[in-house]
Amino acid sequence: MNDKTIVAPATASGRGGISIIRMSGKGSKKIAQTMCGELPEPWHFKKTKIKSSDANVLDSGMVVFFESPHSYTGDDVVEFHCHGNPVVVSLIIEEAVRLGAVVAEPGEFTKIAFLNDKIDLAQAESVADLISAQSKSAVVAANSSLSGDFSKEINLLLDGIVTARVLVEASIDFPEDDLDEDLMFEIHENLITQSKGIRSILENVKEGVKLRDGYSVAIVGPPNAGKSTLLNTLAKENIAITSEIPGTTRDLVRAQVDFGGVLIEFVDTAGVRPDPENTVEREGINRSQEVIRKSNLCLLVQDVANQKDFDVELGNFISVMNKSDLLFEQTPNKGDLVYLSCTTGSGIKELLKAIQSKLGIDEGVETAFLSRKRHEICLKEGRTLIEDSIVSLSEGRSLELVAESLRSAHQVLGEILRPMTADDLLGEIFSEFCIGK
Predict the structure, then answer these.
(1) Rounded to two decimals, what is the model's pTM?
(2) Of 170, 250, 283, 437, which one has the greatest count of Cβ atoms within 10 A?
């Protein structure tokens, strides 16, 4: 059980109908009784007056008690449901602190839940992912991870590796001539199964990483080609200022679009030309080039009637010929070359299909769970170690080598759910959370 008692608002800051203040730790029950009187039975709400030490009523609301270990954190937890006034919330927290609580750090409630074995690390990460999810698909996938679907797959994988380790290490002390061929075959088949299992999980993890992180698409090109108009068209609202005057966009303008359940951030950049008029325009061009380097895809927009040189390395890109309504005859789209008109809407569907193809988005695939890059790295490293052990076994190398590879694979895959040396990793992960979660 955690020694300290922490308190923080569990709802977003600002004014509203209701705010919830969460308190967790061995002192939470006593502090709440001092502020609210006798608490209700666990998991039952009670109407209460929340009072300060000088007997002033801070608010009238509800209180609920979650007794250890049947709570979110595994410790005693109390929630105050009060009016959504920031002043009221602040006064209640100040009183709890005066009575011995401390203000919680970002993600500390979930961190305690992890340390108390209420959830594993992958589930803890999915809490933050669920809060920050910006599409229906991401919400569904985050809830799947939170419920433990991803963790179950990893645990099954770990169980298989443990079985192989036991068999290998039990055989190490036997002379080579006395090794049971059937047993060696069983170990080999077990490892083949684990390797295939990792490959299958990796496919889902890669999709989960894409769904969580989304994509960045830079809209680039020379000045006055219609980049800002294209951004407004894709976002379906007037986000960027448009003008006939070249160089209108000086700073980066961003718009997030839910594209078949996957979040795409389109970034309108400053027009790039070899002779910027001033230092402000030059800084805008520098920022444009930085966005280009970091983007998954670039849309190179040109005025079809006034094409200009654009001498910037783009990598993965689609050429967009804007203002195609000015052409006397329509030109067919070909692969990475799309003709469109933001004025008439012609070619927009074709551009979206080209973006989908370039980014490898499959709208027909349902992502099983949200994932993080660290999950992918651990799985790839674990797969390599298991395949090393398969090669060692096949080539008749020392079983100590096989055992060492499996031990390392077991450790690196275990890092996904419960790292053995977790301090730095936990600090990094839980710092992403909001206060009160």
Answers:
(1) 0.72
(2) 437
